[in-house]
Amino acid sequence: MLSLVVLISGGGSNLRALLEASEDAEFPARVVAVGADRDADGFAHAEEFGIPTFSLALSSFPDRESWGDAMLEQIRVWQPDLVILSGFMKLVPPRVVDALAPHLINTHPAYLPEFPGAHGVRDALAAGVPETGASVIVVDNGVDSGPIISQRRVPVLPGDTEESLHNRIKPVERELLIQAVLDIANGHIDLKELATA
Q1: 80 & 114 share domain
Q2: Helix, strand, or coil (residue 105)
Q3: Is 91 annotated as a binding residue?
Q4: 125 and 168, same structural domain?
Q5: Do residues 132 and 188 share a domain?
Q6: Whole-angstrom distance, CA of residue 68 vs CA of residue 5
Q7: 12 marked among binding-site residues
Q8: Residue 114 — very low, low, confident or very high, per pLDDT cuts 50/70/90?
Q9: Is 71 labelled as part of a ligand binding site?
Q10: Do the strands 2-8 and 82-85 form a parallel or antiparallel pair, or are they unpaired?
């Protein structure tokens, strides 16, 4: 059974999908804790499912490195097999990435390497592309530049706004994330192998 710590910043829709999936006795992973860099709305999902939460605001620390060290300490309490950044809107310091790699994965609302960074959906619309997508990646010390675990295309429709496009990408992100967790738990994806390829 794969143990997961999920880090969020917002509503936690991917977190909820994981929590619902793990209610199935056959699903080979369980969320053991949920962390955030603020008092995130998504904590409500964790509370509903009886999952412990922790929150560490970057502004409470003298610098990003000390915040990262505290975050790593909190994560290590739970001894997770896998840490998932799911809508986590802070760059994780290199020390944290190096300590958790390659068992640190991230979802991103674009077909990487297209449109990395915090505004993938907005950037896709601004570029006028006919399609974008969703990706699940292994986190490295770049910005959305790690090895790709899985991805799928999503069309951009005439009249799409950032919100309408993001709302169509989110369900794809969730499906990719659930499948990635399944594949990692079942040994169909070897993160070490992927990270060194």
Answers
A1: no
A2: strand
A3: yes
A4: yes
A5: yes
A6: 15
A7: yes
A8: very high
A9: no
A10: parallel
Count of CB atoms within 10 A of residue 110's CB? 23
Confidence label for 195 from pLDDT (cuts 50, 70 and 90): confident
Domain containing 157 equals 107-197
Q: In which element (H, E) is residue 64 found?
A: helix 64-77
Residue type, 96: V
CATH number at residue 116: 3.40.50.170
30 is in an annotated binding site: no
The tens digit of pLDDT for each residue in 41-87 reads 999 999 999 999 999 999 999 999 999 999 999 999 999 999 999 98
Report how many domains make up the chain: 2
Find the catalytic residue in 103, 108, 119, 166.
108
**pLDDT given at position 196:** 87
pLDDT for the residue numbered 106? 96
Catalytic annotation on 119?
no
pTM > 0.90: yes or no: yes
Phi, psi for 49 (deg, rounded to 5): -95, 5
User: Do residue 94 and residue 139 come from a single domain?
Assistant: no
Which bin fits 157, alpha (ψ -120 to 50), beta or left (φ > 0)? Answer: beta
- 82: part of which helix (H) or strand (E)? strand 82-85
Q: Which two tokens stand for residue 112?
A: 């990487």
